[in-house]
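ARCHIVE CARD
Drawer: 12
Card no.: 0347
Subject: one protein chain, sequence and derived structure
Cross-reference: see card 0346
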Amino acid sequence: MCNRELLVIHVDNNFQVDGYPEEATYGNPGSAELYCDENGEWSGQPPKCIEIKCTVPPIENGHVPDRNIQEYKEHDVLRFMCNSQYKPTEDRPSRCTKVGIKAEWTPTPACEPITCKLTLPPLEGTRYESVSRNVFLPGETLRVICGEKYWISNNQESAVTTCDVDGEWTIRPVCTEVVCSNQRPQHVYNWEVSYWGNHQSKMGETKRYSCETGFKSTDGATQATCTRNGWTPNPLCQEITCDRKNIPEADVISENKQRYRYYEQVRYRCKEGYQGQFTLTCRGDGWIGNPRCTEITCDRKNIREADVISENKQRYRYYEQVWYRCKEGYQGQFTLTCRGEGWIGNPRCTEITCDRKNIQEADVISENKQRYRYDEQVQYRCKDGDQGQFTLTCRGEGWIGNPRCTDTCPKPEVPHGFAVGPYNNTIYYTCNKGFKLFTNKGWWAEAKCNDNGLQQCIENTECGETPVIPNGKLVTPQRQNLRHIQARITCNAGYSSQSGNLPCRGGKWIPDNISPKDICTPTAKHCKPPPKVENAVVRTSYQKEYLSNSAVTYQCRDGYYMEGEYKILCNNGKWEKKNVTCTQITCDKKNIREADVISENKQRYRYNEQVQYHCKEGYQGQFTLTCRGEGWIGRSTCTEITCDRKNIREADVISENKQTYRYNEQVQYRCKDGDQGQFTLTCRGEGWIGNPRCTAHDADAHDPNKSQ
C-alpha cells in the first residue's frame, strides 16, 4: 500500500494533483492516471503539464491564408477561407479549445458547397411557386407569393428572389403581415393611433382623424384605412387652396396670383361701368364673400324745357349719351352722359325772350313791360298824323311783324282829269271829256297813296301806249307829234316783218292791211315745248313755241346731278336728241376713326341728309356732316383729351414726368419729407381725377424729448 503521506509525487509547479485531469487549466497532464502497485510504488512517471495548442488542420475545399502560423493557443481563432462556390459550414468562428484532455478546433473548420436554404413548410401568409425542395444553388430563383394581408420587399404582393453567391437570398423569402406606421401623418391634428404603443395597425383597420387648421381631409374622409400602400386616402390631409376667381366685372387690387392659401384674402374693385368693391376669403369650402358689382345705370332724365332726340328709353347704361334739343320757346341743345355719379353735362336751355321794341311812330297799347317771353304779342297804335296799328310777335329770331305807320295819303293833281279818295290807302282817277288815259286800258285807273306813276291824260286824237305785237315790239320815237307819230317795228330773233313802221291814225295805231299778230312772222319752223326729263326743269320761261336755233338748258332738282348733255337745240321744228338724265346724289357712310355715329347709322345717305357724330372716349366734341353734291360737307373735328401736368406742392412725380398727358394716362406721386403716402391721378375728360392727398407725419408723437 502506498502511503500518500510518505510517498510524495514530485511534479512541476504548473501542475495540480487535486481534481480530475479534464479539469486541468493548463494543458494535458500526460498520463491520465497513476496507481499504487503491489510493491507500494506509484506506477509510471510523475505527470507533466503541456501547454494547450492546436495545429493547422487540413480543410477540404478550403485553406488557411496565413501560412506562417502553424500552432494556435487556446482561444485563438482560426481564420480560413473556402474555395470558390463553397462556404464555411458554421457561421461561428473556429477556436482552439481544450476538449477533455485534448486541444481541438471548435467548431471543426470545414467548407461545404454554397446553397440557400428554404423553410418548409412556409410560414403563415407565405407560399412558394412550384417548390418541392428547400435547397437552392447560387443563381437559382424562387417566386414568393404573399397572402391577402401580407407583403414582401417594397410592399409588394409577390417577389422573385435569387440565391446569391454568398448563399444568401437577394430578398428574404418570407412574407410579413402588412402594417401601417403609428407615426402621426403630416398635417393630421387628431390621430386615433398611439405612437408609443407596441400595437401596429394592420391592413384593413381604420382610425379616425382630423386635419390641422388650413388643411382638409382628402375627399372629405373622416377615417384613415391601413392598406398595402399605407394609410389612405393619401395624403390624409391636403392644404386648403383656392384658384384665383376671375370676375368679369371686377379687377383684383391686392396681390394677384394664380392660387391662394387658406384664409388668404383677395380684394376686388369693380371695373369702369360698375360700382363697389368687395373681399373674398379662401376657406375650406372655397371662396366666401359677396362678389357683387352693381352696374351703373341712369334713369331717363326728364327735362321740362327739352326733348330727347337720340334713342329714348327708360334706363341707360354707363357712358351712354342722350341728346336733348330745347323745346319751342327755348334755344340750344346739349348732351348728358351716364357716369358713376349720375348724369353729367350741362342741361341748359335758354328761354327765348325779347326786349321791348321802342318804335318812334307808335305806342304800345297792350301790356307794356321791359321783356316779353316767346310767342308773346305786343300791339302798337300809330301816333298822331299816322294811321293804322300793327302787332309784333316775340320769336326765336327776334320780333317778327311789320312795324309800319303810313303818313296821311295826299290827293294827287291829275292834269286834264280828276281824282277821288283815298279809300283804304287807294285813290281813283279819270280824264276830262275829250281826253283819254295813255294806256288805253280803260276810262279810269287807280293808284296807291304816294304812288308817282299816275298815267297821263291825252287828247282823244292822239295815240297813247303802243299795242303789244306777238314775237316783236313797237318802239316810238321821241319828240314826235302824237297825232302823226309812227312806231318802229322790231321783230324777235327768228321773226321778220314786211313793214318797218306802224302809223298812228285818228288816235289809234293801225297796221297796213295786216293783223297785229301777223306783223312778225317766223323765218323757220318753230319747236314745240322741249321733252320732259324726270327730276329736272327747263331753266327758261315756258313757251308754246321755240324758235329754230334756240336752245334750252335743263336743271336737275336739288339732290340730283346731271349725266350726259344738259342743253338741247331747236333745229327747224325739231329738238336735238340727246341723253339728258338726272341721277340722285348719295353719299357713302363716312367712317371717322375718332368718332361714332349717334344718329341713324346706315351704309348710304341721300342728298341733304345729316349724320351726327360724337367723339369717342379719349376725345371730345360732336359734329354734323351733310350729304351734298360735292360729297360730305361739315367740319369733322374731334379734339384729343389731354391734361397739363399737375404740380402739387406736397408731392413729387415718381412715374414718367412730362408736360402733357393723354387721356387715361396715370401719374404717380410720392409725398415729400414730412408727409407720408403716395397717390395716383388719372387724366380724364373732366381733367385730373383721383385724391391728391398727403397725410402729415406726426413727429411729436415719436419724440421722447417732448412732454405730454
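Annotation on reverse: The two ends are 127 Å apart (CA to CA). The first strand starts at residue 53 and ends at 55.
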